[in-house]
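== Sequence and structure of one protein ==
=== Format: two labelled lines per protein ===
==== Data for this protein ====
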Amino acid sequence: MTRPNQASPPAQPSSSVVMIVDDDAGIRASLDSLFRSVGLETRLFGSPAELLGGTLPEGPGCIVLDVRLPGVSGLDLQGQLTRQGIRYPIIFMTGHGDIPMSVRAMKAGAVDFLAKPFRDQDMLDAVTAALERDALRRAEAATKEDIRALYETLTAREREVMGHVTAGLMNKQVAGLIGLSEITVKIHRGNVMRKMGARSLAELVRQAEALGVSQTRRTTDQT
């Protein structure tokens, strides 16, 4: 790592954790010092096995990973994490990187690929982007969970009406499709809007898309 200028602190959520995976103790110590100097919490691992066998942080985090490690490579570890549903953003670092390797890493979801020696600021910038991405992903997941909880309060009929309405059907079409009066459909639709906390049809459509519950437009052919 090179330090031509004073590294500026990145802006990221508090309690963010940077996990450093490198078999070189000197690199781990240097990165640990760098990240802690700007207020980041770190966890150090000398191998992929140590990371996989440890307790991962519950809040926002990212992984700074050496691509060339004894045994399981950094790219192999990236694949294992993906298969296990562990979705921390990854920043690869290497002294022997080549174009095919970096392309493979980026296609698999890596945030950045830094060649050693790298500037401290470049690493901090990459970590900042990774932590912001993870925080956003977690916020979106939490919002989806909230929407799912609201959806669970709907009756089976209200869910059916919601699916058809958010697919673009008018109340009259929904009524003909499921065998109800139009006024009854309107009542169910109002209940859906109220229970889901949707202030407009557009908002209800976005909620349905987040949950994947919209019916297909082919139902219009049956009316």
About this structure: The longest strand covers residues 61-66.
